[in-house]
GTP 3',8-cyclase (Zobellella iuensis), 326 residues
Amino acid sequence: MFELQDAFARKFHYLRLSVTDVCNFKCQYCLPDGYRPDGRKSFLTLDEIRRLTRVFAAMGTNKVRITGGEPSLRKDFTAIIETVAATPGIRKVAMTTNGYRMARQVADWRRAGLSAINVSVDSLDPRMFHQITGENRFQEVMAGIDAAFAAGFEQVKVNTVLMRGLNDGELGRFLGWIKDNPIQLRFIELMQTGEMDELFSRHHVRGALIKEQLLRAGWQQKVRAHNDGPAEVFWHPDYVGEIGLIMPYAKDFCASCNRLRVSSLGKLHLCLFGDYGVELRDLLAEDGQHAALQLRLREALADKKATHFLHQGQTGMTPHLASIGG
Ligand code: SAM
Ligand code: SF4
C-alpha cells in the first residue's frame, strides 16, 4: 500500500540514500577543502541499509538512488547495490558518482543490479574540470562513461553544475558531445549551502538563461509525466542526447518534489534544505522494528513543508551537499 504521501498530496516513490560523507574530490561548490575526516562517524551498515530499504519499499518506494559523498568509496559498495536491488518492491536502483571508479567497476555494479547512473562532469575541458573539481581526472571519468555504455547501460545521465565565469560558456561544446551520444545532460543551478561564502553570488547562473538558448536553437520541452521529478527535459530531432535543467530557484520547483532523503548517519531529511533530520538509526540496529519505523516515517511526513526557504536566504542545516547526498 502506498503511504509515503504528505499534506500537499505529493507522493514519494523515490528514496535518495547516502551511504557515506567521504569524498576524494574537492569540488569548489561542495567540499572545496576536501573531506575532513571525523573519526566518530560510522556510516549505515549493510544490515541497516537492508532494514531501511525494506521499510521504505513496504510503504511504496520503488526507486532508490545511492549517493554520498562518493558512494563508490565504500568497500562494500557492490554489496550495497545487491542488497537494495534484492529488496521486494524496488524496481530501480540508481547511483550518483563522480565517476572515478566507473571504468574499473561499472560492469560489476550492473551485474549487482544497478539500473541507472548519474555521473558528474562539470566541464569538457580537462583543465577546467580540474579547476572546478580539484582533481585532474577528466580522462578517467570519460573512460568510465564509455565503460558504462560497454557494460550495457543504454543511457547515462551527466550532472553539470552551472558556474558563471567557469563553465557557462561551454554550452556549444556540451551540445556537440550529446549529438550522437545517448546522454541526458543535466545542468544544475548552483545551490547555496551553509558553508558557502561568496562563491554563490560570484558563480550562480540562472538555468533559465540556458533554457532561452535551447528554445531559440529549436529544442523542445518534453511534457512532464505524472511522477517525474523537478527536472525540465528538452529534446531536439537532430540530437540523440537530451538536456535536463534543474532550477531549484524557479517558481513551483517544489510542487513536483517526489523524493525523500536518508543521510549516511541514518537521518531522514524531508528537504535538502530542511532545518532538521529525523533520527531513524535507533530503530535500524535489529530486525523487528518495522512497525515502529513505519510509524516514525508517517509522523515525519505529516510535517513536510510545501517549499524550501532558499529565496529568503535560509539554506537550512545542510553545510554542503556531500553531507546528505544532493
Ligand atoms: N560525489 C557524487 C557526485 O559528485 O556525483 C555524488 C554526491 S554529489 C553531492 C551529488 C550531486 O550534487 C553532484 O552532481 C554535484 O555536482 C551536485 N552538487 C553538489 N553541491 C552542489 C551545489 N552546491 N549546488 C548544486 N549542485 C551541487
Ligand atoms: Fe565529492 Fe560529489 Fe561533493 Fe564533488 S560534488 S566534492 S565529487 S561529493
About this structure: The chain has a mean pLDDT of 91.
